[in-house]
Every structure is written in C-alpha cells, then in structure tokens.
Amino acid sequence: MSSDSLLDEALQAGGDVPALGTGTRLVHAGRDPMRYHGFVNTPVFRASTVLSPTVRDLLGRTQPYIYGRRGTPTSEALERALCELEGGAGVVLCPSGLSACTLALMACLEPGDHVLVTDAVYGPVRHACDGLLRRLGVEVSYFPPGTGAELGGWVKENTRAIYLESPGSHSMEVQDVPALVAMARQHGLRVIADCSWATPLFFKAHAAGVDLVIQAGTKYLLGHSDGMLGTVSASPRAWPALKALHGDLGLCAGPDEIFLALRGLRSMQVRLRQHEQGALAVARWLQQQEEVARVLHPALEGSPGHALWKRDFTGSSGLFTVVLKPVPFAAVEAFLDGLKCFGLGYSWGGYESLALPLDASEGRLRALCEPGCQCVRLHVGLEEPQDLIADLRAGLDRMQAVDMDSLL
Length: 408
Fold this sequence. Notes:
Blueprint: H1 3-12, H2 22-28, H3 55-60, H4 73-86, E1 90-94, H5 97-106, E2 114-118, H6 123-135, E3 139-143, E4 159-165, H7 177-187, E5 190-194, H8 199-202, E6 212-215, E7 230-234, H9 239-248, H10 255-287, E8 292-296, H11 306-312, E9 319-324, H12 329-337, E10 342-344, E11 353-358, H13 365-368, E12 374-379, H14 385-401, H15 404-407
Parallel strand pairs: 2-3, 2-4, 4-5, 5-6, 10-11
Antiparallel strand pairs: 1-7, 6-7, 8-9, 9-12, 11-12
EC number: 4.4.1.13
GO molecular function: cysteine-S-conjugate beta-lyase activity
Keywords: Lyase, Pyridoxal phosphate
C-alpha cells in the first residue's frame, strides 16, 4: 500500500491521528502513487468504453469503472481530494461553474416549488433562475443579501431551498450564513451556497451547515486560465439526489480539465496567499486615491459585511470592486484601455490580473453607489503589487486627462 493510501486511511480515522494542515492535505489528498508505478501524479485517463472480462462482470458491474462518463481514476482522484477539503459526503464534477450552479438548484427543486435566492447572485445564475427554473414551474424570489434570520418571513408553504453567494457578485456583500442556515433548518429547507471566492480554504461551508457547496473550479482550483470546471459538494442528506441527477443529466468534465484541476489544487494555498496579499495592497492603495469613491472588498473595514467576513472567513482572495467618483464612461475607457498589467476580460482566479467595467446602475451596485459613479471589477493576480499600483495610477491619470466638459 502506498504512503498516500496510508494517509487517506489516517485522514478517515479522525481522532486517531494528529490533524493535518491544509497545505499537507492539498499536497496529498486523492493521490496514490504506488497504484501507478510510483508516478506522483494520477495519469490522465481519456476514456469512454471500459472492457469487462466476462458477461457476468459486464452485466453485474463488478468493476470499479464501467464507463468513462461514470468516472475514471482521474476523476475519482479529484473527487476524493475535494471531498476531503470540503468535508462533504460526496463531490460531483461539471463542465463549468455555471453548470454546477444549475445542477445544485435542480437537485433541490421540482415543478411547483419555491426557492429564495440572494439578490447579489452571479448574473448568469439569475438568468437561469428567471428562464430555466421558471419554465420548469419553479417560483423564484430574490432577497437582500443583508437579510438574516428574518428571511423566515419570506418562506412559503412550497419553499424548498435558499441559494447563497457570499460574498456576492460585484457588490461583494457578505451574508450571515450561520443565521440563514439556522432559519433554513427550522423550515426544512436545503441550503445551497456558491463559495468560489473563498474556496474551501477560506470558508468551511459544510461546517457552517450548507447542504450543497458550489465551486467554479475554472477560477482558483485550476488557477491558470486554461480550462473550465465546476464542482458541487454535498452533505449526507443532499448527496443521493445530487448524485442521481448528475448521472441522469449525463454531466461530466473533460479528463484534461480534471488533470489541470488536480495540478492546480496542489499549489492553491500558496497562490491564494499571494492573491490575498496583493489584492489587499492594491485595494488599500485605491482607498487613498482621490478618484475613488469606495472599494468593495470584504476584508476592508467599511465594506458591506466586513464584520461577518471577519467572524466567518479565514482569508480573502483577489477579486473586488472599485467604485469611481462620477465621471463619463469615456473616462473609464481611457482608464482601462491603456492598462499594461491588467488584461480586459471575463472570468477571474487565474495567475494574471484582470479588469472589467461594471454598470453601477444595475443589480446590487445601485444601492452602494452614488448617482453617476462608475464601477470596475479587479482581479489581482500574482504580479508584484507595486507594478499593479503603478499601472492603475497611470490609468487614473489618463482618466483625469479626459476633457470632462466636452463629454458632459
């Protein structure tokens, strides 16, 4: 038996062995080198058909793997590792973060049901709720993310689940997850939470009582902007329905993306520390600039939900929102178009820094911004903070140089 198989046994033994640190778990979880001739990384199995030695084995499904879509040693390695990190009863892999979000919702809901969704939810999930779920006969209500136990007043006879995202997309508002979980338990509701920003390293969602924990693996799990992946981890009571629906929908992730996720997993803690330190340095600098109205970053005092973040989280990542004082959009374009270290693009969580203009008049940002303000979402990558700050300073200077009078 390999040393990592022994480690898995030790992990499962709980109190019989010393607790292992997160970095140790990230390095060893899901690996079994001796199973593959001593190679430290699980090989990439690209497979559909799996042959059986006999008819009895084929029909009786006696083998550990029966069909590529149903699992391979590569997918099993990632599932085992994530199950260890998340603390759930089981994990399924999806081809994207959005597919993981919709899968988690559908695993809890049937026609005629009602679901409560945070108003700060990721835009494509809102679109899926207003389109896909409504077409399936599911009623959706959006609640302010600052709502706590009083959300119980929103529960109807047909309410079956609540969907959280903490911090929320764009507004970065932190939710009182323990209070919402306690309310959900009183009403027999499932709790779903997208925890992609914090990852299981900075927020233990299952320990807080969440039933279905979503990770957009495209972000920090892969960490290199070279693949797409989504994961859902389930509590014991939510696992059977999730596993069954995942199989019924024929969802599976590609073997290369799974391998990239396994590779990214090993360095995730180191990368997240760098993202955290860099983002805080940049965010604190931006707070001091005259062109900036406010910075929405949960780890900063004064940001929405900071006290909850300080209570419930053990760290912060690289994504936050900057609210600029009122300027024409052309000035924002001048700010962004000349950036050298920040790329202009969607997604986040990779090694590179990104910038994205946001509409301050839409969604939750309306409540957090003065009229005329402009918003920019930044993801701070692994570059040196002083280089990013210099790049942003040059951008703010370009913004200031725009002839405002001619644009107003």
